[in-house]
Write a structure and sequence with these properties.
Largest sheet: none
Helix content: over 70%
Order of helices and strands: HHHHHHHH
Number of domains: 2
Strand content: under 5%
Mean pLDDT: 87
Number of strands: 0
Low-confidence stretches: none
């Protein structure tokens, strides 16, 4: 049993080294210019260690951002009190603005967007408001809202967050409610 725990710890260390090394490489290099050889050299691990943990460089970033972004969505889904949620989001966005800007300039924003969309799907699946919405309308609504919410957050983050977080939340809630009501009205006709 101890050998299994030890091998799991080594595997986790390798994952952590690879993730840290990739983030360091992304500080000065575009995503498309980085390859597995550079990454394992920087991380101080073997190619085998890389492929034991990941299939591609995308997987490293998907794993990393899934944990970070997933935590925020867990707070939302679990109905953390609004004041606590806003405080948590404010801290998150303060840190995440620089990450998003780097992802845009270094060419890996699509990975963040992919993780965001997956979490939006999970969020909307957790709501009972869609019980009476048919396909394909539900699928298109989810895509529309996910892309819209992402675009609003993106614009807000890269434009120095001029509006308050409260204002952004109210805007998103208004858009979500109005769009859902229009969809329900369309289906009733």
């Amino acid at each position: 049993m101890a050998a299994t725990d030890h091998s799991q710890a080594i595997k986790q260390d390798s994952k952590d080294y690879l993730t840290t090394a990739l983030l360091q490489l992304l500080e000065k290099n575009s995503y498309s210019s980085i390859n597995v050889s550079q990454l394992v050299r920087r991380a101080g691990v073997s190619r085998m260690a890389f492929y034991r943990n990941f299939n591609s460089l995308d997987d490293v970033l998907l794993d990393y951002f899934s944990a970070i972004i997933g935590k925020r969505f867990t707070d939302i889904i679990q109905h953390v009190p609004p004041v606590e949620k806003l405080n948590s989001l404010e801290l998150f966005f303060t840190d995440f603005a620089a990450v998003l800007e780097r992802s845009i300039s270094q060419g890996y924003e699509s990975i963040i967007r992919q993780v965001f969309n997956k979490n939006m799907q999970h969020f909307y699946d957790s709501l009972s408001i869609f019980d009476n919405i048919r396909e394909p309308e539900k699928r298109y609504y989810l895509k529309f809202m996910s892309d819209g919410v992402y675009s609003i957050w993106r614009e807000w983050l890269i434009s120095d967050q001029k509006e308050s977080l409260q204002t952004i939340h109210q805007l998103l809630a208004t858009l979500q409610t109005a769009t859902l009501e229009a969809l329900k009205k369309q289906q009733a006709n």
